[in-house]
Give the backbone structure.
Amino acid sequence: MDFFAFLYAVGEEGGETAKQGIFERIRASLAHWFIDERGWFKVLLVAAIALIGFLIGKIILSVTRKIINRSKLKGIAGNFLVTILQIVLVFVYLITILRVIGIDTSSFVALFTVGTLAVSLAIQSVISNFASGIILVTNHPFKEGDFVEIAGISGTVEKISLFATKIKTPDNKTVSVPNSSVSGGNIVNYSTEEKRRVDLVFGVGYGSDIDRVKRVIQSVLDEHELVLHDDGYTVRLNEQGASSLNFVCRCWVKSADYWAVYFDLNEAMTKRFAEENIQIPYNKLDVNVITQTDKK
């Protein structure tokens, strides 16, 4: 007889046997179930399974924490994974004990499955951001302090969390970009390499001496102390534009000096062209006025 069936039987017969002593019958029934029906074995089995399950759960969590501590998933990501594992282990632990006792757990499993599915559908975007956060933490395409361009946003990475990446833009705005957008698009990291190339284009008027223009541009590069002269630079006529000869200017600088050199060269080149009487062209519009006399 199942233990719960025994309790039910006791309750059914309690009213008829009240005069005989309810407590005496409970004691006798318990003794019968415990000894004659080997209830002691089921009690020991449940206790053993509960103890073994508890120890196995502790071991699994301990091993998981050690693996996480040795990997790249420390911090929030590691704690989140441990929490999810704890929930799963507790559910399996309780289901196992209930089955040993004799309770049908199929309804619990079905309810848990449906609930898990409903929750996963409701927080689909959150799960997507979390999975993307795990990828970012594991692969390290950038780190905090790097200057990056992601999802159309350029700035310095302030914080990488499981669900979003915080970026501070050059104009001091903080933008939170969902990790799904970060991992799903192109990531440009300007801080990965120590050196970066500055690309500029300078237009001069038609009729200018090409070799002279090249020498002027090169002299400006030679004079700038932040330009990496040993890496060389390129100064060549790149295009015959609609109203100008366009020269490409490429030089290497340290990544931290990029914007300083970029603006310095633009200013210095404009001043030098003026000193050297090299014409900087601009669009012109010629308007011809036709009078009635001209028509005749």
User: Anything to note?
Assistant: The mean pLDDT is 78. The chain has ten helices and eight strands. Residues 39-70 form the longest helix (32 residues).
